[in-house]
Structure prediction request, 271 residues.
Amino acid sequence: MKHVCALFVLVFTLVYISTFHLIQVPYTRTYYFTAFQTMCGMFGSRFQVARLHTQTPFSTTHRDFFPDHCGQTVPFTSDHRWWEELYRPIVGDHIHLFYKMVVNKRPVVFHDRNLTETIPYETPTESCTADYAYKKQWYHTGVHSHCDRSASGGGIIHVHPWSAPNQLRVQGREVTLGMFFESVGVERSTTGRGFLVKGKYVKLNMAYFTGPDRVQDLLTHSEEEIMNLWLVDCHGVVLLWDDDSDMPSVTKEDVEFLETFECHPSDYPRR
Ligand SMILES: [Zn+2]
Ligand SMILES: [Zn+2]
Prediction:
């Protein structure tokens, strides 16, 4: 009987231990290397960048390491040298994606919004002379439109983080379709009405292709997935349409139009 009890306690303890989780906030990675190994084990994605910062008593510098050139040994770190993990696009990259949005069977092409926007009063007040309640200040993030338009009504998303103010620029996984929407004045309703496009709420569907010659990589109508689409692929294609319209097609002319916009640097990674 004693043995049965001991066995039961042991099994119960093992099952209980197997339910343990580890949650780390924030999520950090640790890599272990010997002096004889290359850096290739640090990279899990072609879009990853390993940045080594070096600090002196007077200033700081950094050196970037990319997956395509990972065959070197890992530089040693010290109190004054540390690593940062980044993802493309970063400052220095300049990439372009094609988008086509069709609402009410009509293509919509965007220009950047006015960077200041006055918000009207909910109820007019007599205590202020201004004819608006408050003023919003939007800003240039480096993810935006130049109002380019293809013959069939598609447009181009420009991504070049260097052009934005240093503290306000977005890079890596923060370069999203939602960021583009913010630049051109498309808003997602917080009460489930969909997206506000040129003054009207619509429910959007989205197809994403990592390149114009690819089969569809993602198809969704999840608003969160649409907002968080990572704009990392140079010459990626984003198709958006409302429930009253059909999924737009990408013509040969659209692809030729897209290819007039370059990928910088020329060795920018592709999937
Ligand atoms: Zn631009
Ligand atoms: Zn551009």
